Each structure stands twice: as C-alpha cells, then as structure tokens.
C-alpha cells in the first residue's frame, strides 16, 4: 500500500523532525529532574525556562505568565474551573457558545451541576458570535467568558479582540482556547485582550501530552491539581522535560515559518474548496469563507454518511491507491452516530450534518496530493450516492440553482 495522505491535522500533526531531534537527549542523556539542585537537574530547569521563553515570544507574553500543562484540555479545565471557583463569591454566571469543543463544554456542564449558571450563546450560520451578543449576555454576576479562537471543526475564527474589548470594559475574565490558532495564525495575547489562553503542542508540529495556559498577571484562579510546588506552586507534578523542550522548539519553528506556511495552506485550502464545489452537486461548505483557519475545509455532502466517506477514503480497495485520512464531524466524537453539535448549531439540517467531512492540511501536503484527493473523493461520493436510498440529485437546490436553505422563491416550495 502506498503512503497515506494525511488530512486530519486539526486532530494532530506530525511532530517536526527538528522537534524530535531537540527532544531526544532529554529522554536518556539528560534525564535529571528539574526539581533537583545538582548539575543534571539544573540543566533540565534551564531547558524548561528556555522553552518558556520561546513560547512567550510566539504569543507576545511575559515569560512569567506561562504555565506548562499536559495539553489544552487540562489548560481549559484549569482556566474554567479555576476561575469559577476563585470568583464564586462575586458571582456564578459563565458565558460560552453552543459551538465549542467538548474541552470547554464539559467543564461548563460540570459547573452547572454544582450551582453555576451557564449561558450558551447561539452562533450564526458561519459559526460566528458577535461582540454585541456577548455584551448583552453579561450580567452583574458574570465571572467568565470562555470560547475558542478558531473552531476545531469548521475552521471559523471568532472576533476575539473585539470580544476581549467588551469583557475588559465590563471587568469580566476572558478565557480563549487557542489550540487551533497558536502556531498557525498570529496570536498576541495583548492584541486579543484576553486574560487566559490555552494551547497544545501537538496541534502545531510539537509532541503530544504537553501544552500551556497563559495567565495574565493578577488574574485570579485556583489550582486544578494539588501536590508539589512546580510551576510557581500553581501546577504541581514533575515536569515533562522532553515534551516541554519539544513545545519550545515547535514554538520557535512556528514563529519563523508561520507567514510562508499560512500562504501555502490558504492556497491549498481554497483549491480544495473550489474543486469540491465544482466537482460535486448538493454540497455545503461549513464555516466562514473569509474568517477561516488557513488549513480547514469542512463540507456536508448530501445523501450519504460522512463515516462511509471517511472509511472509503481510509481503506481503498483498488490496487495502487493511496489511503486518505480525513475526519467526520469532530474527531473527538467520531465514534458516535450522533450528528455534530457544532453543525447543528450552525443550522445545518440533521441529514446534511451526518454527511460532513473535514479535511485539514499541513505544510507537508502538496497540490498533487490535493488533485488525488479530489479525484478519489468524487469517485467515492458517486459510488456511495449510487447506492443511497435517500439521495436525489439536486434535491437541495431550488429551480434557480441556489441552495434551498433560506430560499423563499416559489420553486423552493
């Protein structure tokens, strides 16, 4: 079988070879604990601080405001639960959106079970929420607004800086999940006007199992974990030195490569979007066309299940074919038969939501690979639709050729 084409980079990325090389010595030759005073420990502590500086440089932060975690999920839980607990005497109201990653939704739902009230703001058809909607939802007892910078599934980038200006004016703590944006688009914590920001190394060519929470000086949170005095007594546990070193190297590489990589990815992204819309009938692009992550392509394809498309691409039967790895719905819940809550929040009909496919690119992908993906995707969709008992070509379009959804012409009825 030929090498696969990996188009699931929103789920995880290949660790960059330069990152791997920088990590290697910290597994065997330089394995000391940074909590010790002898030379090997001091060496590890210095490496951690160098990585902290590299990450601070990437996001425009003060190095003393960065705390290493096991990933964005831990950082999100810390930001949400820690802020809620620290500010409980002020109020127990939190604001988020109904189109968030489960790493935000689940902590909020946990807090709901323990006496907090959460407002889930609706998003529009592109997945956007307005600063005005956030302002209208803020109450005297609101202690936290939490949302993603870039949506992991549909790629929509929220107007975080404008929302941050609202929360700053109203004196409400603002947490941003930047797992999909750090390393891919410019992220400057001062410009975003947020108070807490989460990230994960494996989303931008770093290792799995390591991330960070940036916390503006003076922000009140309680620790999520309790134990030793690591990370200035705010996040206990022996440091993952190889992982932190890898995160630092990935941050350095991202800072140097971001502009050129984003240009390449936008070109490939738009090439795929244009190709799919020209080559297939009855499809819907999910997310914003303009405010979109450079690498994200998400379509709903009418008449067939996204899981069937994904499996057909992943396990081709023709000799000499290349597997194509994509996802359907959210990667974290792709094992369920429930349609994506994010697509439903956009107003995508349930049937179309079941037919969603997400293709997310990396700097390793090429134009030639995109051509192969388009050709293979068209063949798979045609074959599956020919067997579908529900698909009728053109059923989602009115007589003018426009999408029925939202059309009020007589032909649409």
Describe this structure in words.
With 413 residues, this protein is an alpha/beta fold. The chain has helices spanning 17-23, 39-59, 72-86, 102-112, 131-137, 160-170, 189-192, 230-233, 241-279, 306-314, 341-345, 350-353, 367-387, and strands spanning 5-6, 66-69, 93-97, 117-121, 142-148, 173-177, 196-200, 211-215, 283-285, 296-301, 324-325, 356-360. It has 2 domains: 5-9 and 258-391, Aspartate Aminotransferase, domain 1 (Alpha-Beta Complex), CATH 3.90.1150; 17-254, Aspartate Aminotransferase, domain 2, CATH 3.40.640.10. Helix content is 38%, strand content 13%. The strands form 3 sheets. The chain has a 7-stranded mixed β-sheet, with helices on both faces. Strands 9-10-12 form a 3-stranded antiparallel β-sheet. A two-stranded parallel ribbon has the order 1-11. It is globular, with a radius of gyration of 22 Å.
Key words describing this protein structure:
413 residues; alpha/beta; Aspartate Aminotransferase, domain 1; Aspartate Aminotransferase, domain 2; three-stranded antiparallel sheet; 13 helices; 12 strands; 38% helix; globular; disordered C terminus
